[in-house]
Specification:
Helix content is about 80%, strand content about 0%. It has eleven helices and no strands. Helix 5 packs antiparallel against helix 11 (about 275-299). One of its GO terms (biological process) is DNA-templated transcription.
Length: about 300
């Protein structure tokens, strides 16, 4: 009987100490679920007019946002196409020697312009050396043969600067004609990448006395022909500037609304600017011819 009592007590203790009966557990577990469902569910509640209006406004705002995003993406794609075309035009201009990188004060130089500046600095050092050698020879009263050798070396030295300018005219003509490679004082007298031969004759004439009548007449004729060539080249360059201005004035190059017209105007303008290289080469030929003729009259 005692054992039956112990078994009965053990069974009762298991029910108390081991947890509530299954029915009680299910009741405790279902109550929170019912509470959560009742608190978070709105399916059974009808939406009022204010909520419906707010939902409609949110849907309309989302639709407009999608439209703006689509328009923005289309604008980016159009801008990308224009940028690609401009890069192609810029690359074409660089290949034609029309890059303006060295044209502005404070702007970065193109590689060709930087090379020309270094070569010109080296040429100036050689020029000072040649000039010092020539002065020393004149003071030493060397023979005509020795003086001839020195002057021939000086002429070859000037052939080098003409060669350098010819290369610069092909690679970066704007850097050459703007005179960013010379001093500001020299820039005041700059003419198409150099100095006017007729003005150089005016400067040198007082230093050439005495001259024979034949030499004087030859130098005067050279000055007159140089002036005529300068006027013709200056007039041609002015016409080129006017033609370029007229091309730009026909339509705004800054307006990218019509890409075809824009690219056509850009190509036409670049084509006109390519003639600038031809003008510079004509000037270099004038310099060389003037140099040889001037030396012939002075010897």
């Amino acid at each position: 009987m005692a054992s039956d009592t112990l078994r009965a007590g053990t069974g009762t203790g298991t029910g108390v100490g081991g947890g509530p009966p299954p029915q009680v557990q299910n009741q405790h577990q279902t109550k929170p679920l019912e509470k959560r469902k009742g608190a978070g569910s709105t399916s059974d509640k009808p939406l009022d007019a204010k909520t419906l209006r707010r939902l409609a406004q949110n849907r309309e705002a989302a639709r407009k946002s999608r439209l703006r995003k689509k328009a923005y993406v289309q604008q980016l794609e159009t801008s990308r196409i224009k940028l690609s075309q401009l890069e192609q035009d810029l690359q074409r201009a660089r290949s034609q020697g029309l890059f303006l990188a060295g044209g502005g004060a404070g702007g970065s130089l193109s590689s060709d312009a930087a090379i020309f500046d270094m070569e010109y600095a080296r040429w100036l050092e050689d020029d000072h050396r040649h000039m010092s050698e020539l002065r020393t020879a004149l003071q030493a009263h060397l023979s005509d043969g020795d003086l001839r050798m020195i002057t021939d070396g000086y002429l070859s030295h000037y052939d080098e600067i003409f060669r350098l300018k010819g290369i610069a005219a092909k690679s970066d003509v704007f850097h050459l004609i703007t005179g960013m490679w010379i001093t500001p004082a020299e820039r005041c007298f700059l003419w198409m990448g150099g100095f006017r031969p007729s003005e150089l004759i005016k400067i040198l004439m007082p230093q050439l006395d005495p001259l024979t009548e034949q030499q004087l007449m030859g130098i005067c004729n050279l000055q007159q022909s140089s002036q005529q060539a300068e006027d013709a080249l200056s007039q041609g360059l002015e016409q080129l500037h006017q033609s370029l201005a007229d091309t730009i004035a026909t339509g705004s190059l800054c307006d990218g609304s019509n890409v075809d017209d824009y690219m056509g105007q850009m190509a036409l303008a670049l084509g006109k600017l390519s003639n600038l290289e031809g003008f510079v080469h004509q000037v270099l030929c004038t310099y060389i011819q003037w140099d040889l003729t001037y030396c012939k009259y002075c010897t």
